[in-house]
What we know:
- By secondary structure, this protein is α/β, with parallel strands linked by helices.
- Helices cover 40% and strands 13% of the residues.
- The protein has helices at residues 10-17, 39-52, 72-91, 109-126, 150-159, 172-177, 185-198, 232-240, 261-273, 276-279; strands at residues 21-24, 55-60, 96-99, 133-137, 166-171, 204-209, 211-212, 223-224, 250-252.
- The site of zinc ion has 4 residues, from loops.
Amino acid sequence: MSIAGGVENAPARAEAVGARSIQIFTKNNNRWAGKPLDQNQIAKFFENSKTLGVDVFASHDCYLINLASPDTEILTKSRNAFLDEMDRADALKIPCLVFHPGAHTGSGEDTGLKKVAESIDYCVTQRPDSRVTLTMETTAGQGTSLGYKFEQIAKIIERSNYPEKLGVCVDTCHIFAAGYDITGKKGFNNVFELFDKIIGLKKLKMFHVNDSKKGLGSRVDRHEHIGKGFIGLEGFRSLVNDARFKKTPMILETPKGPDGAEDIVNLRVLAGLIGKKDRKQVNLTSNRRMLKC
Ligand SMILES: [Zn+2]
């Protein structure tokens, strides 16, 4: 959800489109450094989330960070920027900090995975009091990025000295592009059985719910509106009706304009897939106002 004008504005945008759980950036996502959050802003953020009933479940780290980089200068910059991301999430009491494991940029997958685990351990030891769950996102595997196989995520967790600090975010578009076929019920069940066997469902903290503009195994990361891409409605029907994930936050990262109208459509499409028994629990957006952001 957009933080234009300040993080404190995100809850109202969520409320306007009928979202109850959101993810935000806590600073400009294309810059290394951000303006510090001030106390006034933080207080307003808490007040708005509470009064509007919006759960800001996750922050997403800045796109420049690469915790797997073999370049010492970039690695140091990345770790410091990641510590700042942890501090911001802690200040805002956001439970999960979502990050992509990183890209090995030529050093090789195994070396890259080792670097990520070392980076995580470094950051955790620098912030022993942090309460944020460092939540690794599954990736599409574009270029040299890591985390496109469940085994790679498992390896990072295994190699870290702080596995209890780590969680996983499954991005539906990314796992599909990485080759995990979730388009039908059977495929969906197989994929999450595999996830459970390799990583463990206990580690699954949240979903990024996106359709994919590119095909199965394309390893290209392009998000599409729900039901309009190669995953299609049946894959999402399995997801929203799976009892195991009933309380797992699901976050849209689908394309949208400044007024967020596309979010309303995507949320309605997803709500429409929920079986009759559970549908009355879903708070649709029909009586909500649209906010001009
Ligand atoms: Zn994502």
